[in-house]
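Hi V.,

You were right to ask for the full record rather than a summary. Here it is.
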Amino acid sequence: MKDFVSSSRRSLLLIVSGPAGSGKTTLCDGLLAEFKPRLQRVVTATSRPPRAGEVDGVDYLFLTPEQFEERVAAGAFYEHAKVHANRYGVLREAVLSKLDASVDLLLNIDVQGAASFRSAARVDPRMGERIASVFIMPRSIDQLRERLAGRGSDDEAEIERRMQTAQIELKAWKSYDYCIVSGSREEDYERIRAIYQAEMLKSGRLDA
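Predicted structure:
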């Protein structure tokens, strides 16, 4: 892999979105395993305390609620949101410091977060042409429901809630650079792998 990538290439931020059950987390895990250490996960910040075994800077960037709010007020986040009682967000410097160090980044994020991130990044000159985005589209609503039910982790009420959210998220696919219509795991992985490799070869990513 080291021979494949030019050291003069500008790093890439690959954003991946899709409804729950689309398989996006499995695809992201595959990319991270295959292309490590060149490709790394974006480490998001959170205001919740670490759980047993979690490491600051590896699992999350752990901030106190006060620290989180201070960074929000300072405009330090590309995007942030409240989930239940806790805050989560992507810090600008957490992304830019890695990209400046020639590390590609992978961000698995929901549709709303991706939209906020793209909007903020468009006016950030340090991002340039570094962003590429992929939407994982289920082949059908029935396929999505089957996958959610097959995980065995959600009751019927939660599956229905996720399905309603998916109906909204699916409308956003045209906002992405690429759309993978889901087939088998192997087919989906080969497609997202090909997207990543093609993006690495774009002439616009080569330093003059």
